[in-house]
Structures are given as structure tokens and as C-alpha cells.
Design goal:
Length: about 150
């Protein structure tokens, strides 16, 4: 004698299958996004050096960077807290970094030396008139012979 399944049982099975398909599609989507980001970073790295810089009140991390003259340099700059600027005058770079966004700057250093970069968007002070905070937010790019 054949077993009969009720409509209720079939409804639960269909609902479970739909939920399973949605979970699988979510994982595939997340994997795709992560893979695309890694692929982009790997492609940039093959062409030169990729350096991640985080701006936060009142410092850059890292605040000292060493690269080779003639080497393609890609800076991936983010802000942890407020809007900051990233100015590296020696190479005509001046960008605004908003919190939660990523700014990618690529350049090829054509001269050796130590060059200052600094925050070019006022980002505050620990206490007014202190001369601290934004005014001392800087770092150094050292370009050595390749």
C-alpha cells in the first residue's frame, strides 16, 4: 500500500527547500563579492606594491612607508572615524577620504627622498587651541633606489 503525504507535509518540505536555496544563494553571493575584491587586490599587487593606509583622529597607520623609485605604488586609503584628507604634495596627490569609503591612488615615484604626507581636511583637535590633533596628523613616504 502506498504512503500518502498530507498537503501540510508537502508545504513544509517546499518551504524548507526554498529556505535552503536562499541560504545557498546568499553564500554564493558573499563568496563572489569577496573573491572579486581579492582578485582586484591581487591584480594590483602583481603590477607593483599595494599599501593600505588607515586615517583616524589624529594619525595615519602606517605613518612611515618605504617604496622603490620607479615601482608602481597603489595606496588604498580608508577612514575609521571622520572625513580626512591625504595630501602627498611631492607627487601631486590630494584626496578626501570619507568614513566607510575606500580611496585608491596609484602613482610611480620618480624621485628618491623622504616626503611628508598629511591630512588636508580639518579633522578636529583634542581640545580647542591646542595645536594638536589635525595639525600633527602626518606621515612619511621614503622612496629608495630600485
Amino acid at each position: 500500500m502506498a504512503k500518502r503525504t498530507s498537503r501540510k507535509s508537502r508545504g513544509i518540505v517546499i518551504t524548507d527547500l526554498i529556505a535552503l536555496v536562499l541560504v545557498i544563494l546568499t553564500f554564493v553571493g558573499v563568496f563572489f563579492v569577496v573573491y572579486q575584491h581579492q582578485s582586484t587586490q591581487e591584480a594590483l599587487a602583481k603590477e607593483g606594491v599595494v599599501i593600505h593606509i588607515e586615517a583616524k583622529q589624529w594619525a595615519f597607520s602606517p605613518d612611515e612607508i618605504v617604496v622603490k623609485k620607479g615601482q608602481k605604488v597603489t595606496l588604498v586609503i580608508t577612514s575609521r572615524d571622520v572625513t580626512h584628507g591625504f595630501m602627498l604634495s611631492a607627487f601631486d596627490i590630494n584626496e578626501v577620504i570619507n568614513p566607510g569609503s575606500e580611496v585608491i591612488v596609484t602613482f610611480i615615484p620618480d624621485k628618491t627622498g623622504t616626503f611628508e604626507f598629511r591630512c588636508s581636511v580639518y579633522c578636529g583637535e583634542p581640545w580647542p587651541g591646542s595645536g594638536m590633533g589635525h595639525w600633527v596628523m602626518r606621515g612619511y613616504l621614503k622612496v629608495i633606489e630600485g
